[in-house]
Each structure stands twice: as C-alpha cells, then as structure tokens.
Amino acid sequence: MPSKEDAFRYIRAKIDELLTVMGTQPLRPEELDDETLIELDPIGIVSGAFSQVIAHLNETNHRLNLATDEIRAILDALGAAVVVLDLDERIDDCNRRALDWLFGGVERERIVGRYADEVCDASGELLAVRKAADGASHEVCLHGHDVQIVASRILDEAGRHARTVMLFVDITRQKQNERHLQLYAEVFSHLGEGILITDADSRIVEVNAAVSRITGFPREELVGARPSLLNSGLHEPAFFRDMWQALHRDGYWQGEIFDRARDGRMLPLLQTISAVRDPAGRLTHYISVMTDITSIKETQTRLDFLAHHDVLTGLPNRLLFGDRLHHAIERARRDGLAVALLFIDLDHFKNINGSLGHQVGDQLLVEVANRLRGLVRQSDTLARLGGDEFVVLMESRVSHATASKLADKMVTAFRQPFVVNGADLYIGCSIGVTLFPDDGADAVALLKNADTAMYRAKEAGRDGQVRYSAELSEMAHSKIALDHALRAAVRDGRFVLHYQPIVDIRSGRVVSCEALIRWPDGPAGSECPNSFIPLAEETRLIVPLGEWILREALGQMRAWQTAGLTLDYISVNISAVQLAQADFPDRVIALLHECGVAGEQLQIELTENVLMRDIELCSWVLTQLREHGIRVAIDDFGTGYSSLTYLKQLPIDNLKIDRSFVRDIPGDPNDCAIAGAVIGLARALGLDAIAEGIESQEQEDYLAGMGCSLMQGHRYAHALPADDFARLVAAPAVPA
Ligand code: C2E
Ligand code: MG
Ligand code: MG
C-alpha cells in the first residue's frame, strides 16, 4: 500500500505533467500562480489531474490529510477553489482561493467544522453539487463570474463515501470566448455580405449562406471546389495576375469583379480578399468578402441616364447635348466638315400650360418630342434643352440646304394637330438655324446664334424658320442696349404722357382724351411708343411702367378736374402683361382711390388679341373693373381676331376703329365697308364706336354719315403735353 508520501509525490508528478502539457517547465509548487493555471483551459487539465489524484487515493484506500504543508501549498497555489465537505455538510477543509472566493476572505480556522450553509455564499450550489454523483459537474454564476464546480467522493478505508471534495474553477474567460465565438458564428451566417474562405491552396473550406444566396451555388457544391467555379470569363488574365500580385505583396485586394452565378447570370461584385497567416507567418487561408452590387450598378446606370436625359421625353438633355455638340464641332474642325444646329421653340406654349394645365402641357411636350424624333435621321441628335426648347444637331452630310429642309419639314409637321387626352391641340414652332463654321466658331456661339435666329423667327410672326446672320446679332445687341436704357428711364422717371383729344363732332366738345406715352430723351427712333412698348412687354418692365402711366394719367385727370376742366373720362392703354397680373383689378382700384378719381372717369384700352388670349381671365378682370364703373374700349378694332360671341358677353363700352381702315376712306371701298360694318356692329351691341386717325374732313364726313360721332386724330389735335391739351380744350376743338 502506498504511503502518504507516495501520494504527495504522485500529485507533484501530476502537476508537473500538467505544466509540461501546458508547455511550461515544471515549477516549484509555490511558483504556480493563478494566471498561469487559468491561462489555458484549466478545466480539462487541472480537474482531470485532480480527479486522478482522488481516484488514486481512493483506489489505494488512503485517507488524505490536507493539513500537510506541501499539499496545502500546492492547493493554495491552484487558481481553482477547493472545498472538502463531510457527510454532515460541514466544511472539512478548503484552500486559499476558496477562503477568498466563497467565505469572504476569513481565516481557515473560522470555517473548518462549520456547516456550509452557515458560512458559504454559495452553499446552495455547493450542496446541490455535492449531492450529485461522483465526478458531477455543474456550472453556476458566482459573484458575476462563471464558475464550474466538479465534485468527487472520497471514500474511507472501508470504501464508504466519507467526504466530498469540490473544485470551483473560474471559467468566465472561457465562457466569454465561447460567447464571442458563437456571436462570430452568428455574424458569419447572417451577414448580408458573402464570406468565402479558402485554404492556402485556394480550395474553398467554408462559405456563409450569403454566398449561396448571391451565387446560387449550394454550400455543398462550393466547399472543396475552387473559386474559379465562379469565373465569368469576362476578365483578362492580367486582371487576376494583378489581383494575386496585390495579395502577395499587401496581403489584401479590393475591387469590382464580374463573377457568374450558377444560372449563368453575370454578377457584379465588390470583393475584398485578405490573406490570413499564422503567428509563424505561414499562409493558412484566404478570406473573401463579396457584396452583390447588381442593384448599385443598375442605379448607377439609371443615374447616369437621368443625368444625361430629360425625364419627361427621354431625349438627351442640355448636358449630353452640349457634350455631343462640342465633339461634333471638334470633328468637323479637324475634317473640314459642317455641323448644323436647329433651335426649336414652341409658339405660345405657355398659353397651353396656363389654360389646360401642366399635365396637358407635359403630355404635349412628349408628343412633340415623338413627332420630332420621327423627322430626324439616325445620325442627328435631338435634345430637349428645357421648357419648350428643343435642338437638333446635324452632323453628317450637312449643308445649309439640308438643315433648312429639315426645319421646313418640322414647321410643316407641326401644322397637324397633336392628340393629347383624345383632344386635338394645335401648336406651331419657330426655328433658328446655324451652321458651323459660318455662324459660330464654337459650341457656345453656335447655340447662342441659333437662339437669336429663333427669336427672329418669333418676331417675324412665328411658325417658321430663320437662318442666322450677323445682322441678327446686331439687332439682338441693340435690343439689349434699348432694354438697359428703358430700365434706367423707368427708374429715373424719364417718361411723360401726352394727351390726344377724343371729340364728339355733333357738339364739338372734347369728351375725353387718350393718354399716350412719350420718351423725350429716349434713343433715336424711340419717338413712337411702338418702338419700345413691345420690348417692355417682353421683359415685363411694362408692369412698373404701366403702373406709373396709370397713376400719372389719373393724377392729371384729377388736376384738370380741380382746375375746372371736365372730361367724361380719360382713356389709358393697358398691355396684356399688365392684365395678366393677378392683382391688376386691385391695383387699378387702389390707384383710383389714391388719385381721387371715380371709376366711371377711367377707360382702359385693350386690343382684341389681348382679349382673345385668355378669355376667362379677361372676363374675370373686366367684370371686376366693371363693378367699379371702369369703362373698357377695344383698341385697333378690326385688326385682330375676335369672336362676336365673346364681344357680346364681355362688359365692353367702346370699339375703336383702327386707323388703318380710316386712312383710305372714302377712296377705298373695302375700308369703307369695314368701317361701316364696325359702326353697325357697335350699334347692334349697344356700344359706342370711336374712329381713330381722322386727318381729313372727308374721313370725318364719311364716318359721321355712317353714324359714328366720336373721333380722334390729327384733324383735331396731335397728342399734346398736359398744359397744351388744357389750353386746347378751353378753346373750341373742332376745326371750322
Ligand atoms: P394706339 O393706342 O392705337 O394709339 C393711337 C396711335 O395713333 C398713337 O400713336 C397716336 O399718336 C396715333 N395717331 C392719333 N391720331 C393720328 C392720326 O391722325 N394720324 C396718324 N398717323 N396717327 C395718329 P402713338 O402715340 O405712337 O402710340 C402707338 C401705340 O403705342 C398706341 O397705339 C398704343 O398701342 C401704344 N401706346 C402708346 N402709349 C401707351 C401707353 O401708355 N401704354 C401702353 N401699354 N401702350 C401705349
Ligand atoms: Mg390706344
Ligand atoms: Mg388704336
């Protein structure tokens, strides 16, 4: 039978053996520190050794006396807590770690012989484990640590269960590692990115679910295969050579790669491959992380398209067109060829948008784009610059004749109605044409000049084409100069109003006057308002200018009244742009109040075309004005197109017979007939007629004979400054 010393030696040997297993030189027991023991998995080794000791002792049926210093030193050096319980659940012995951990750091003497449940924080666990079978193992949580408890029975000489020795091992770190590993495993399998791991020999050892989802290959087909299984054949050998070079040099490669899915589909992937090495620097694995960028690629393509195309019509936009124009000019310059540009603008598109709504406007633009598409050649570029502006770039076999022919075809094609929502819409277009190199040295000049030519086409009555010429640019320049001068004149109040009498020839009385604007120090040619009013309308400068005119005219009216000069009303010309201001009626009424003039004493003159442009708006505005007694005259009557139905519906007081019909009276039978018809129409509608431009007795006589008695013209007076007008009214106006 082995002696006690034999048992000690045996334990020493076991511990040394254990240290050897751990890769450490055998130590003296006191050199065993906790860290060293816990560092590697302490459970398998320490508890294994321990239970072997116990088993050995049991086998030899020998009582272990723990009081022996050497054994105590060994046990105290253990990272684990050791507690020996007798069958009454009294503590028989314990080591240092147990005192610290389980018994609140008290001395051994105060613990030994006491009942476990009196002194131990964890007596519940302790006793539960003790009751379990020999070698039972139990994991519990003690003071925030994960602890494994292993129990072994110690038998007495008769082989009866005498005590239980229990080992408490802190496995917190191991548990943590386990949890981390579990987390990594979760991440690995649930990651949206595919992860493919190969060994150093490039054989796939593991893939996550995402790889299968992305490539369509099940895991079983991938593991053991080579990544070349996914090769799309799309990349040159040089691509892979560079990739491997980077992997060898940097241990890392990232890039976009096209793989092939199991169903043959191309897979654009963003891939990151990292080489994995062991501590000795030997290559062990490659880890490849792949992201499916199919949708990113699609979005990119779509964004690219959107950046270069007009969403509504799908035509190239300004950006792409600019690019193409630029390149076309480069090529043409190099090869000595021509390039033509057609600048197309729809006529009165705003009216469609305004009256039928933007949705109809948009639909019309789509129809226009389709029609234009049908007219251009494959080699031409048709683009939408924005709004109702389209351009065509002609590149091959271009001459002025071919460009002009295409422009004509377009103008003609626009004569056919466009069908929008089942309704026929008519819209014309104005086209400006330029040719490289004749009409512009670069893209910017060519486009600008085409735009200028297009404007000329508009000015020339729309619905046609104009080829650019240098004079057009001059015209455009003088227009800009005029605009500057006009703005300055409005700002500085450089305008005056002149007044032309309107005479009732039956009584010879000046019943009214028309206010006509003059620009005394305006540039040469600005004597006639027709030379600057259209531009002021185009630039909307007419809005502030028109307001000034109204205020000035009403102020004058008031001044005359105060001076005892009484007119029935004053007549003021109003432009379409003013009328379209939403607050126009309010503005007029405010000005009447401001100047102290009654509504009945103001007449506004509108041309027929203004009325017909937006009949609903006009009807609304005129009704508002009528409620305040304001009179309405239709100016230049007979030169526009008006519908008699509307004339009847709108609150109108006067028709002014245009002076072009008066001029050749009584010599021209046509004019006589027209003037007569207008007078008859006025009478039928219950309106007054005013004849404009009366210069001679014959004209007066003829029109008076037709029943018109209100007359305006040089025969009575030119438009006069206010003072001259006042003097004239004081004296009889009708020539003898
Ligand atoms: P309108 O309203 O038809 O004005 C009548 C034009 O005929 C005036 O020309 C007047 O001077 C001219 N006139 C009058 N009697 C005779 C005549 O016996 N013979 C000839 N040959 N001409 C005569 P003006 O002042 O040059 O105005 C031209 C146009 O400019 C006006 O035509 C009107 O459309 C516009 N305009 C004038 N003043 C204003 C204004 O204050 N505001 C706006 N929006 N337009 C104005
Ligand atoms: Mg007028
Ligand atoms: Mg007139």
Task: Report on this structure.
- The protein is an alpha/beta fold.
- It has five domains: 4-70; 79-175, Beta-Lactamase; 191-294, PAS domain (Beta-Lactamase, 2-Layer Sandwich), CATH 3.30.450.20; 309-472, Reverse transcriptase/Diguanylate cyclase domain (Alpha-Beta Plaits); 499-651 and 676-688 and 708-730, TIM Barrel.
- It is 46% helix and 22% strand.
- It is built from 29 helices and 25 strands.
- An eight-stranded mixed barrel has the order 18-19-20-21-22-23-24-25, surrounded by four helices.
- A hairpin with a 5-residue loop joins β8 (252-260) and β9.
- α1 packs antiparallel against α3 (42-59) and α14 (349-356) packs antiparallel against α15 (358-375).
- The longest helix is centred in the middle third of the chain and has 23 residues, at 470-492.
- It starts with a helix and ends in a 6-residue tail after the last helix.
- Mean pLDDT is 86; it is low at 22-30, 40-44 and 60-67.
Could you state the oligomeric state of the chains shown?
single chain
Which distinct ligands sit in these coordinates?
ligand C2E, magnesium ion
Considering the protein shown, what is the CATH homologous superfamily of the largest domain?
EAL domain
The second-level CATH architecture of the largest domain is Alpha-Beta Barrel
Largest sheet at a glance? 8 strands, mixed, barrel
Supply the number of structural domains: 5
